[in-house]
Amino acid sequence: EKTPYFHKTNALLLAYEIDPTQAEGLCKQLPDDSLLLQMRAESAVQEGRWELALSYLKPIGNLTDRGYFLRGEALFGMGEYEKAADSYLQSGMPAYDRLEACYRELKDFERAYYYACLSR
After folding, report:
1. pTM of the full predicted structure?
2. What is the Cα–Cα distance from 93 to 87, expressed in whole angstroms?
């Protein structure tokens, strides 16, 4: 648990190998690794590795505002502007410049202008 590469999934698999009857109970005591996954997603976004970032975010049950923003960044990088805009809106963060860029790419200039005005 104290190693930097500890994953709850790995611990669950190991617990099933040791004692399948107690595996679930043991893993409920372990810390949640969604923060670690989000940190790895952020690193992947900074490196421009969009698919990797999305794969880190996918198993997180309840994304934080930052998680939705990171998902938007990854989708934007992949050219999926509609999905990226949805993620930015779900983030609740003031990502007006990113929303403007999404809608500009989608040729929805009315919405692009709206978010451009909000960002100024």
Report:
1. 0.73
2. 10
